[in-house]
Amino acid sequence: MKKHKKPATMLVAGAGALCLTLSGCAGAGTLGASDQTITIAMVSNSQMQDAQKLASQFEEENPDIDLKFVTLSENQARAKITASTATGGGEFDVVMISNYETPQWAKYGWLKNLSEYAQATEGYDEADFIPTLRESLSYEGNMYSVPFYGESSFLMYRKDLFEQAGITLSEKPTWTEVAAAAKQLDSDDMAGICLRGKPGWGEVLAPLDTVINTFGGRWFDEDWNAQLTSPEVERAVQFYVDLVREYGEPGAATSGFGECATQLAQGQVAMWYDSTSAVSTLEDPSSSAVVGKIGYAPAPIEVKDNAGWLYSWSLGIPESSENPDAAWKFISWMTDKQYIRTVGEDLGWERVPPGSRLSTYEIPEYKEASAAYGPLTLEAIENATPEAPTVLPVPYTGVQFLAIPEFQDLGTRVSQQISAAIAGQQTVPEALAQAQQYAEVVGATYREER
């Protein structure tokens, strides 16, 4: 399969147009003057917030290193980190990126080779990372970022409500089953399902792309002809939009991962299809009213079997960092086996960053705490198919994204059209007609290079 290569300027153009204001927060305690300050750009998800809470332990062990965290929402983080790293700005020593950015940025020379650091760090055990995840964060056999947590996607549902309603899901539920359950459980007091509708290539398009894939759709055919107005894509998108508009959460067009997590944790929705990492919120007694009430099932399917995505929030070091050795010390602390145990022992085993290391799933306390979702999470990550994401052949890789540099801009533009359809501002055919035009421009550049 031919993989397209683009110059680094493609990424700079998409991200550099955004100017964002950052709010930094110091590390969890200043222990006097330090020799080095490392600045860490992170996404403000719950697992990352836990890392900040525990960061004082790192500072105590490394008094010559002071930590400065810059936390951003997911969309802001993607744009700012991309712009800074691509232009060699040097403002960040550690960046939180994913398996979308890592191989591309490594190819462009923007990231440090972390396999070299890992192999020189006693006990770090790079081989312990889940193989599919390790491969997705590698370029030419070396890792250029290391996973803080890994995820696939699955269906989360209220076991008690399903039992009361007499609803039984298949071992591998279909979207047809899910829609029927959402309709049955939807009421004035309870939404049948929560699905992301918020614009962003990493927001609404993450779950929607898996629906498109399993319905038999694809973004491009093998010759890079755009396919967003094909019957398969239109059927998938119309299904998704109808489902969330009819039985979904209020304000669906502005709901993302965080909003859906809150609504299910507070008992306001009966189902949610999203990231396997959501268990850290749903099973946390300090923040969830539905602990022990959630059932977990594989990502719903339709035509294509095995629809779950593959994703990782990982940590990398930009080539422009002036403190790479200190940055690695922090990264290795935050992604080491011992950190996982520290989270479990200090904060609770349900808050352990999931899906990064195989050894996590052998810890007795974690095995007990994650019995309902741990094995399913590991299975979903190991069985994800980023190299063959669709029913029909495609010239790209990636399940919930396309691993091409243009996708940050293309995906965002398409997502805006889908969100407008969810908001009722236009029809699905109208949204896809515009999306098709965006995709045709990208496809044409790839055909020209053949």
Overall description:
Pfam families: SBP_bac_1. This is Putative ABC transporter substrate-binding protein. The chain has 18 helices and eleven strands. It folds into two domains: 177 residues, Periplasmic binding protein-like II (D-Maltodextrin-Binding Protein, domain 2), CATH 3.40.190.10; 215 residues, Periplasmic binding protein-like II (D-Maltodextrin-Binding Protein, domain 2, 3-Layer(aba) Sandwich), CATH 3.40.190. The strands form three sheets. The protein has a six-stranded mixed sheet. A three-stranded antiparallel sheet has the order 9-8-10. The protein has a two-stranded antiparallel ribbon with strand order 5-6. By secondary structure, the protein is of the alpha+beta class.
